[in-house]
Amino acid sequence: MKLRIAIQKQGRLADGSTALLKRCGIGFSNGLGKLRPEAEDFPLEIFFLRDDDIPDYVADGVADIGIVGENVLAEQPKNVEVVERLGFGRCRLSIAVPKGDEYSTLASLSGKRIATSYPNILTKYFAANSVEANIHEISGSVEIAPSIGLADAVSDLVSSGSTLFSNGLREVETVLESQAALIRRPELSAEVEAILDQVLFRIRSVRAASQNKYILLNAPTDKADAIAKLLPGIKSPTMMPLAEEGWVSIHSVIKQNDFWEVVDRLKQAGAEGILVLSIDQMIG
Length: 284
Ligand code: ATP
Ligand code: MG
Known about the structure:
Layout: E1 3-8, H1 14-23, E2 44-49, H2 54-60, E3 65-69, H3 70-75, E4 81-85, E5 91-98, E6 113-116, H4 119-128, E7 134-137, E8 153-158, H5 162-166, E9 169-178, E10 180-184, H6 190-210, E11 212-220, H7 224-229, E12 238-241, E13 247-255, H8 259-268, E14 272-278
Parallel strand pairs: 1-2, 1-3, 6-7, 6-8
Antiparallel strand pairs: 3-10, 4-10, 5-8, 5-9, 11-13, 11-14, 12-13
The structure holds adenosine-5'-triphosphate (ATP) and magnesium ion.
């Protein structure tokens, strides 16, 4: 019995998805354009698909789990459950108007034509804000719609915003924030469920590792307690005496997000020789 996972073949989620599996120790070769490789050392079969098809395949039982953008799920809800958000493929669905156009609130778009590939999300968003607009569905190249007279505004996925900018558009609203998510079919056999638990355990270890750093530093013994208090580690930090009299070495784990702030405070408190290392796996 194998767990079958559907991931994007080519596109913005493809590299993140294969990299995540590889970091989980699940190796496979997709050389020669193989669309259905089997993992070498884990009971997993991989299907490479178009991203829009993934929720359907998981809901229909062709695959057991999949990796897809939350935006795709919001547009076309399917009978799948989100098991874990994966932290890559971050983007937002935004509304943008031509640079020179006036815009104050969403009501500025009342009666206007909005081009988008996300008509369901947009329709709900406008309804929730009691604004009536004309949602015009197009499947791609949304950002050129205003300049060819097809729409007054657009709603499209953005990460840096540079595509909008280079097409003479200005971002004015965020409709939805999105990232890649692991989805599953609600019904799985006990055997497949057990393999999924193993995959999840590995994914969570990898994710925790990438959100944390391992920090080592030297502190004068008389300042060690004050310095240790600045380290909100998993448990209290490890402290070891150094060969040099009057100094200790302190080890701990800190959150990536707190990192720069903590380092500044450690230096002010008298820490020296601060080393920060990335963590490969973090087993809770
Ligand atoms: P496919 O050929 O598989 O249908 P696609 O062209 O529909 O691919 P991509 O452009 O590869 O899709 O985007 C896949 C997903 O990547 C999006 O659904 C979204 O979740 C995410 N994403 C992240 N950043 C962006 C961005 N700047 N623009 C578009 N999608 C983004
Ligand atoms: Mg697609």
